[in-house]
Amino acid sequence: MREFQGRVVVPGAAKAEALVTTKGFNTLASFQKSLMKSDLRAICSDQNNPDLFGKALAGKAICLPRTIGSTTGGMVLYCASAMGAAPACLLFSEPIDSLAAAGAILSDVWTESSLPTVDSLGEDFLEYVKEGMLIEVMEDGIVRVEG
Amino acid sequence: MQLTADERAILNGEQGETLAKVMKTMVLYGDVFGASHFVPVESEFGHIVTSFGISVMKPVYSLMDELIAGNAISSQKFTVDPRPMDFKNVPSNLLQNIAFKVMYSKQKVYEKQLQQMGLLGDDAFSCTCYMEEVGNIPEEGQVLSWAESSAVSYANSVLGARCNRNSGIIELFGSILGKVPYFGLLTPEGREATWEIDIQTNNLPEAQLLGSAIGLAVQEEVPYVKGLNRFLGDELTPEVRDYLKDFGAAAASNGSVGLYHVENLTPEAKKQGRGIIREGAKKLTIDDAYLQEIYDAYPDLWEKADAEPKLCFIGCPHLSLDQLHSWKEKIARQLRVAGKKKVAIPTVLCAAKPVLDVFEKRAAAKALKQMGVTFTSICPLMYMNNPLCSKMPVITSSNKLRTYTSAHYLKESELLARITGGK
Predict the structure, then answer these.
(1) Do the strands B38-40 and B179-181 form a parallel or antiparallel pair, or are they unpaired?
(2) Rounded to an integer, what distance in angstroms lies between the CA atom of residue B220 and that of residue A97?
(3) What is the pLDDT of residue B55?
(4) Which residues of B touch A38 (CB under 8 A)?
(5) Are A129 and A51 within 8 A, CB to CB?
(6) To the nearest whole angstrom, how far is the Cα of B103 from the nearest Cα of chain A?
(7) CB-CB: which of B149, B184, B385 is closest to A70?
(8) pLDDT(A147) > 80
(9) A72 and B63: CB-CB below 8 Å?
(10) Among the listed residues B288, B265, B165, B158, the one whose alpha carbon sits nearest the alpha carbon of residue B221
(11) What pLDDT, on a 0 to 100 scale, did the predictor assign at position B422?
């Protein structure tokens, strides 16, 4: 097991299996098909992301460098949260981008659910964490990864 | 963030619970990025990315209701991204039309919400709000609260305005408060280039292929592009602006570029030269082989790779008036070469309604219609979101459309050959 200290963007505790992408996470491309079909598993539909394409995002600890793509990104994350199709948490190796931050904060302020979000976990984090590993996120931004 | 007494009063609920939540959201958003304070929104108009009343996005419409009920209304009028449906001008069958009506069943409700919130007008739906005919053109240096990645990129890079890559809803909150947190692309430091890109191609690269390559490489950072003015010259002519519009849209969707500088061409690159490149900037050289490798690596999501295309979309982002004329010339020329009078694949040109209103009075529009080409002001991405359309073999000149759908992006010469000659 390893621990990583990040910065809390949206506080909260979570425990979930990891899904990992080393590429930028295109929020609209990833969620759009599932949201269109009201598929609460949120099967990733981003054809350009082989790490996540076809995998269920809901309830998972998404480990990523950053999000990219359309400026609907934050709104899409907010909708996923409000509809119960959001990941369990978002864990960024890099400082968070403006779209992801918006989605996490909108979820926190405007929905009943929360989307715990930690950034700046470092390159080591993304090198260490692998799909399926169990992840525990603490309120203070500590992320425990069980190998 | 340091708040003024007025801002603190709003946060404390003195102007109602809804406005307090709007302020809380924006303060948290600013805090994440180390914003020290709010700055006023300076543009006359805002631009909103959410234009579609899609039935599964109920949380957005509930939030709009909450804002309107709480009298949290935009302090500026705004334009908005394109509408999703056009049964008259974009080919679709009966079942697809039924699916559209179910999918976008909230369209009328949502448009009423937009009107209550501050929509500029009934024709204010386009991703290219900065076209002269649409009239939402910010001035150099002005602070904006916009979303729509391609519009933000154009406003920052070509017009020299200052806008962060705001998410949908956040841009509206900035327009409601009339102020945005000061960070990122609003600051001089945030506008410095952190990548130096050297273009070493033999000819002017396709705008949407070059934008894709740079977006994929730099992601959300700021590139300084050298070597393009060999082909584009040193003036922001209408043709050059159109090239940069398409280039920026691809860089913004394939990566998340909100600002780029083109040497001796875009406003800040002209004024500051290479002084705008941050020390230690990463370097990348792009030549023809590099671009071909990017092009060849795009995934093929058609059920049959050799299927005959059923539809072609040109104009994502929306075309300018000059581009409409240019496509007319290119399609006509290619049809003459092919010895044909009409396009072999239904072809739709997309542009803002005020642009189409001007174009459709001209002979070129009539000529295009005779060639079998139609015009629309919808967003082709929203057309492709229809599950009954998403499996269709569609070709496009848009790398943005390729990114979000199964559409094949083709270089211009290949696209023209396909639409005028079939396979």
Answers:
(1) antiparallel
(2) 8
(3) 74
(4) 56
(5) no
(6) 8
(7) B149
(8) no
(9) no
(10) B165
(11) 54
Q: Where in chain B is the domain with CATH 3.30.499.10?
A: 311-421
Q: How many CB atoms lie within 10 A of CB B236?
A: 17
Do residues A14 and A137 make contact, with C-beta atoms less than 8 angstroms apart?
A: yes
- The answer as to CATH 3.30.499.10 being correct for domain B311-421 is yes
Which of B21, B60, B254 lies nearest to residue A75, judging by beta carbons?
B60
Interchain CB distance below 8 Å, A74 and B170: yes
The minimum CA-CA distance between B400 and chain A, rounded to whole Å, is: 9
Nearest-angstrom CA–CA distance, A79 and B109: 18
Asked whether the bond before B317 is cis by omega within 30 degrees of 0, the reply is yes
User: If you write DSSP's letter for every residue of B231-254 in order, what string do you get?
Assistant: HH-SS--HHHHHHHHHHHHHHHHH
Q: Determine the Cα–Cα distance for residues B400 and B406; give it in Å rounded to an integer.
A: 11
What is the average pLDDT across A35-58?
91
Fold of A2-146: Glucose Oxidase; domain 1 (3.50.30)
Model confidence band, residue B390 (pLDDT cutoffs 50, 70, 90)? confident
Round the average pLDDT of chain B to a whole number and report it. 96
Q: Which of B278, B218, B210, B286 is nearest to B243 (CA)?
A: B210
Q: What are the tens digits of pLDDT across the range B199-250? A: 999 999 999 999 999 999 999 999 999 999 999 999 999 999 999 999 999 9
Specify the CATH number for B5-186; select among 2.30.30, 3.90.1010, 3.30.499, 3.40.1360. 3.30.499
Q: Which of chain B's residues have a Cβ under 8 Å away from the Cβ of A97? A: 165, 220, 256
Q: Which of B81, B105, B256, B399 to mutate to test the interface with A (most CBs of A within 10 A)?
A: B256
* Chain B residues 111-170 with CB within 8 Å of chain A: 147-149, 152, 164-170
CA–CA separation, B42 and B165 (whole Å):
16
Mutate to test the interface with B, among A32, A98, A111 (most CBs of B within 10 A): A98
361-420 in chain B: CB under 8 A from chain A: 385, 387, 390, 403-404, 406
Inter-chain contact A48–B403, Cβ cutoff 8 Å? yes
Q: Does B49 touch chain A (CB under 8 A)?
A: yes
Question: What pLDDT is stored for residue B305 in this prediction?
Answer: 86
How large is the angle between the packed helices A27-36 and A73-83, nearest 10 degrees? 40
Quick: pLDDT tens for A80-138: 999 999 999 999 999 999 999 999 999 999 999 889 999 999 999 999 999 999 999 99
Residues of A in Cβ contact (< 8 Å) with B57? 35, 75, 79
Q: What is the reported pTM?
A: 0.94
How many angstroms separate the CA atoms of B109 and A143, rounded?
43
Residues of B in contact with A33 (CB under 8 A): 390
Beta-strand (E) ranges in B277-403? 277-286, 311-319, 347-351, 373-376, 394-396
Beta-carbon separation of B256 and A97 below 8 A: yes
Minimal CA–CA distance to B226: which of B156, B154, B275, B274? B274
**Domain map (residue ranges) of chain A:** 2-146
% of residues, chain B, pLDDT over 90: 93
